[in-house]
Write a structure and sequence with these properties.
The protein has 79 residues and is an alpha+beta fold. The chain is built from 3 helices and 4 strands; from the N terminus they run ββββααα. A 4-stranded antiparallel beta sheet has the order 1-2-3-4, with helices on one face.
Amino acid sequence: MGCYRFDAFELDVDLFALRRGSEALPMQPKIFDVLRLLVERRGRVVSKTELLREVWHDENVYDGVVAWSGDKILDWYLT
């Protein structure tokens, strides 16, 4: 699958790792999957329906979970 670099970050899909420079950033599996999906589909809008289908496999999840996942990713990006 590979490794994606963006800004100061490196997302290694094979190693399930996110790094900012040399700092490893711990991530929960679903948060990692959301970030991976967004990075793989960069440059286009990813709908909530698509996120639910691809990350949660159409499980019945609370809408706030998707927003919370995005908030966690933004926290890492902005700090």
